[in-house]
Amino acid sequence: MSKFQPLASYRAGQTDDYKLLPLRFSELDADRYLLSNFVGEIHVLDKAVAREFFRHRLPSTSAHYAELKSKHFLLDEDSNVAIDLLALKTRTRLERVSQFTGLHLFVVTLRCEHSCPYCQVSRQNDDKTNFDMSVENSERSLDLVFKSPSPHIKIEFQGGEPLLNFRLIRHIVEGAEARNKIEKRNLDFVIATNLAVISNEILDYCRDHSIHISTSLDGPRDLHNKNRPRPGGDSYERATSGIDKVRAALGRDQISAVMTTTNSSLDRVKDIIDEYVSLSFDSIFLRPLSPYGFAVKTKWYDSYDNEKWLKFYFEGIDYIIDLNRKGVQFKETYASTVLTKMLTPFQPGYVDLMSPAGIGIGALLYNYDGAVYASDESRMLAEMGDNRFRLGTVSDEYETLISSDALLDPLEASFAASAPMCSTCAFEPYCGADPVYHHATQGDYVGRKPLSGFCNRNMSIFKGLITRMESDAYTRRLFTRWANR
Amino acid sequence: MSDHATDVGVDVAFSPEASFEIEAIKRAAYRFSDRVSVEITEGPTGLRCRLRPLQCKAPGNLNDIAQEFRNEALDQDLRLKISRETEGYRNLILSLAFSKTPLGQ
């Protein structure tokens, strides 16, 4: 005799009289809808079944009924905790908004010894020290950092090549640590560097101050060096040797890498992933070019369209899934971020995928010249002559910066839950508003979504990931692991 | 009235018996705004939408687009009904969610 009653016995006496809870639905493909609710639960239904469900005609004996009930898409006479649970999950999902700015980007110099044609930050030659941040501005910036109420503060050093102004990095790190003796926040440091000029002295300092390193690696030697020219043509050699040195000095998990997709990358996604695997990375971030800086000026941004990039991306995702099937534990970072939003109650603080938008709320950027911007992309836009997202300067009061029209206007206008098309989109809980992208490409904070490359790319990624999970049990387990790591 | 020199297009009609909301039709028109312009008129025979291909885009098969547009309008109409039906719960859940924050006091 079974230890448990059959499922039918729990349904005895249950009527088919249920109420719908707030939900959205979008077409997943020709035959199926994706249903989501505002806490991000998802459920895929055949269109015919979904229409029956919406019309209150789904019998409680249906295989979907219990799942729809457990995911809070319906309410019946014995689901008395659904409303409380939905409220609790809603509060959890929005918690990050109330914590406010956790990521603080310091552009310590705009100088760089590389001359990448796709550079999105419009770097300057490495002999122009007037593109360095001053000590005074770095201290004013630190004052602003600790005005943020966030219990987690991450200071990321950007460039140019930030190691060309390492003296100032030391000053900022020590200044932040001194302030944090009183503030007692969870304080992290990251240096985003190409590793070309890293030295033992810098490595020792990073080890002593628990500084994480983020670097750029575009793929195998020929591709990386083509994308990232520097005097001597040895960017790849310096990057890979730097990766080894960082691991030896700081530990294996203290370095991560990102790649940027160029036209030359498009038919080489497997080579690129193999390069990362051979260098013992456990993840890769497959990134398209963004519409800022030299990438626009040199027309590299226009060298491929969304369709080509998405083909590249999903060829990469499928290859990574196959690698995992063969026992190689490896993941794609953007997919993992999206899957965390889909499959867990947690909200990764990825600026592009936040609504309200991540500008200001998710990140603030202190530029080398003392200007304060709402995000990294905001200063990229400013280097192109568009100061729309310049909030003020490091001499301004924190309250003045975060209540500036330059921040509040785009935040309010672009709020996805009230933007046309987004407000009814089932993928909205996983997506973001990105007013900087839409301003850059359409001259409007919201943008017309049918014409938006951001919307098209993300919708395709969401659908592609869900379709793969729905069609293969192994992929679902793998994606669940990615979401929870 | 037409702002096209040659009126290439296709009509999609929604009879009064189908009781489509004009808001649903407008939302469907917005979603299709990368492919066609939509002129909506309301008369005794119901709502009529004239779909015209955008000049910068290839017309494609307008009849296929018209079918897609009709299905999209159906979805949008259903979304409005669900949104209205669940409005009370949505407000209740949000007020519970924020009841312990300064906003809820």
Which chain pair shows the most residues in contact? A-B, 27 and 26 residues
CATH class descriptor of the largest domain in chain A = Alpha Beta
Mind telling me the C-alpha Rg of chain A? Answer: 24 Å
Q: How big a fraction of the residues of chain B is strand?
A: 15-25%
Contiguous low-pLDDT stretches of chain B (5 residues minimum) are: 1-5
Q: Would you identify the CATH architecture of the largest domain in chain A? A: Alpha-Beta Barrel
Find the structural class of chain B using helix and strand composition.
alpha+beta
How would a textbook summarize the main sheet of chain A? 9 strands, mixed
CATH topology of the largest domain in chain A: TIM Barrel
Descriptive overview:
The complex is a heterodimer of chains A (485) and B (105). Chain A has 485 residues and is an alpha/beta fold. Chain A has two domains: 19-93, no CATH class; 100-402, TIM Barrel. Helices cover 42% and strands 14% of the residues of chain A. Chain A has a nine-stranded mixed β-sheet, with helices on both faces. Chain A is globular. In chain B, 43% of the residues lie in helices and 20% in strands. Chain B contains three helices and three strands. Chain B has one domain. The chains are: A alpha/beta (485), B alpha+beta (105). The interface between A and B is medium-sized, with 27 and 26 residues.
List the helices and strands and how they pair.
The complex is a heterodimer of chains A (485) and B (105).
Chain A: H1 7-10, E1 19-20, E2 24-27, E3 32-36, E4 42-46, H2 47-54, H3 63-70, E5 74-75, H4 82-99, E6 103-107, H5 135-145, E7 152-158, H6 166-183, E8 186-193, H7 200-208, E9 211-216, H8 221-227, H9 235-250, E10 255-260, H10 269-278, E11 283-284, E12 286-287, H11 294-297, H12 306-325, E13 331-332, H13 333-343, E14 363-366, E15 371-373, H14 376-382, E16 390-393, H15 398-402, H16 405-414, H17 435-442, H18 453-471, H19 473-484
Parallel strand pairs in A: 6-7, 6-14, 7-8, 8-9, 9-10, 10-12, 11-13
Antiparallel strand pairs in A: 1-5, 2-3, 3-4, 14-15, 15-16
Helix pairs in contact in A: 5-6, 7-9, 12-18, 13-19, 18-19
Chain B: E1 10-14, H1 22-31, E2 36-43, E3 46-53, H2 62-85, H3 87-97
